[in-house]
Amino acid sequence: MTAPVATANRRPSRAGRTLHAGPVAYGILVVAVLFSAFPFYWTIVAASRSNAELAKVPPTLLPGPNLMRNFEAVLEEADIGKALLNSLIVSGSITLGTVLCCTLAGFAFAKLRFRGRGALLAVTVGTMMIPPQLGVIPLFMLIAELGWVNQLQAVILPGLVSAFGVFFMRQYLVQSLPDELIEAARVDGASTARIFWSIVVPIARPGMAVLGLLTFMAAWNDFFWPVVALTSSEPTVQVALRQLGGGYVHDQSVIMAGTLLGTLPVLLVFGLLGRQIVGGIMQGAVKG
Amino acid sequence: MTLTASESPAPPLPAPPPARRGAARRAWRTVSPYAYLAPFFTLFAAFGLFPLIYTAFVSLYRVELQTPGDMEWRGLGNYTALLADEYFWLSLRNTFTIGVLSTVPQLVMALGLAHLLNYRMRGRTFLRTAVLLPYATSVAAATLVFAQLFGRDFGLINYALGLVGIDPVDWQNGTVASQIAVSTVVIWRWTGYNALIYLAGMQSIPDELYEAAAMDGASRWRQFFHVTLPGLRPTILFTVIVSTIGATQLFGEPLLLEGSISGGISHQYQTLGLYMYEQGWGFFHLGRAAAIAWVMFLLIVVLVGLNALIARRRSRKEAGR
């Protein structure tokens, strides 16, 4: 670091963005982080207390000893265990299926020539802007017709449709997969399928991982469609949380224990791979 | 599709003679790209595109939840019924006010945060990840926690307000108060996400622009307004559009603030998304719900079009300067 001789003439060198953060910037950021984190902390506090303790004035701000008891209560009252398992099945299948479908389609859009490529890509990208909620009534009629209401495939199959994923994988492959590599493989007599499995997939793996992370989080947290398609007898975690908050349980600390259980898996993913998620969002933003 | 060598079955054939093999391969090469698209597009057609289009059709019929197979033609009846329903207008207005209350502060704060996160500093990666943390929660979890924090009698927020001498606010029953509560959940969950999008946009603004501005003696404040903001315009437009779409279909937050599908006793924070759910799955009127979905879609088209128009006019004005 250079000595702080702050003459007006020296400022121009890369003044705009590379300045070091001062105490004010740090201060504001620390406050922002505290605001981001506080509700999580509060969930832990409330989930580990009794209802009576939560109603005290002044409020209790430290975690208590009741966490396990509250967890047991949730498992009993809302069948969170089954909900967690269902969510795992649903999110896992959606993640695997989406990554596979989107990598296949993304590869075709990025590197293969075929009629109607532009039009099909335009349709795909165009629908990215239309919220899926708008098709929810015919979708419900469709799964009712198929007899799938309250079955997990009602949530899994529509969850595999990800125009964003196709677009994301296409952009990723356009940038990271050189045409020459494919040409060379073609000259060596490799079929497209061979090229896909032994060249495209290895190169696409980092992109697939990011797409998988984002998809898993979105599927785990999805609310509207599972609430419509499933009931309390076959819930995902979000459906179970809705029941908890819907007035069947009045014990606030039990509600918070359920919230904590439903959030932990995705927080775990976030804690382990947060950096990749941040990278993925920023990457998607620049390209989108 | 022109199949040049349709008589020769394409790839499964183990080792056709060289000449025919070339033709078959070429034929397969024109068709095979569609095989890569097939898994996605089959699902996309069945579960994405078809429902989207069919919604308009359903909205012209009387369809009840218990008997979705029986459809009775109603023409524009569902729409005229909507226009006569005061709760439709109320939810339309609520969607708009909650949309503004949640989107505007959210994006302004995200812009400021992004600017700070762009500084050179210790623990930058940690800070970036930490502000994104709320994004990892679900609507349901976030809303349940905030519903508790916003509790009237024992909520932490009213307690904190009490410390600075403000009387307890009834966050569930006051119109403005409940809409602020709903907006807070949205703001909390999405500000960090938008900050990262802005940060990505800021990093793609070329350094030379800042150097030139600094050379001209522009202060950091002026650089922010005259270099950063114009450079971010496409990104800002993108976030405005995405947030607008999100606000138009807001559903989980108002549903779970106190768990009622009417959005409060006097529908004071019922949004269009929740109103649609109430009509469809509360009162079983799927046809009417489809009409609401279609109204939501038109609303989005108008709002997005308006945004794009304003953005284009502004950039044209700038170019003319």
UniProtKB/TrEMBL annotation, chain A:
Where in the numbering of this chain does the ABC transmembrane type-1 domain appear? 84-273
Domain of life, per lineage: Bacteria
Q: What residue ranges carry the coiled-coil annotation? A: none
Q: Where in the cell is it found?
A: Cell membrane
Topological type in the membrane: Multi-pass membrane protein
This entry carries the following GO cellular component terms, namely: plasma membrane
| Positions of transmembrane segments | 21-42, 84-107, 119-143, 155-174, 195-220, 254-273
Similarity comment text for this entry: Belongs to the binding-protein-dependent transport system permease family.
Q: This protein is called what?
A: ABC transporter sugar permease
UniProtKB/TrEMBL annotation, chain B:
This protein's membrane topology, according to the annotation, is: Multi-pass membrane protein
Keyword Transmembrane helix on this protein?
Answer: yes
The membrane-spanning stretches of this chain are 34-61, 96-117, 129-150, 291-311
| GO BP of this protein | transmembrane transport
Which SUPFAM superfamilies does its entry note? Answer: MetI-like
Give residue ranges for domain ABC transmembrane type-1: 92-307
PROSITE patterns per the record?
ABC_TM1 (PS50928)
Q: Where in the cell is it found?
A: Cell membrane
Principal localization reads: membrane
Q: Give the superkingdom in one word.
A: Bacteria
Query: Among the entry's GO cellular component annotations, what is one?
Result: plasma membrane
Keyword Heme recorded: no
Q: Which UniProt keywords apply?
A: Cell membrane, Membrane, Sugar transport, Transmembrane, Transmembrane helix, Transport
Q: Which Pfam families match?
A: BPD_transp_1 (PF00528)
Q: Which family does it belong to?
A: Belongs to the binding-protein-dependent transport system permease family.
Q: What is this protein called?
A: Multiple sugar transport system permease protein
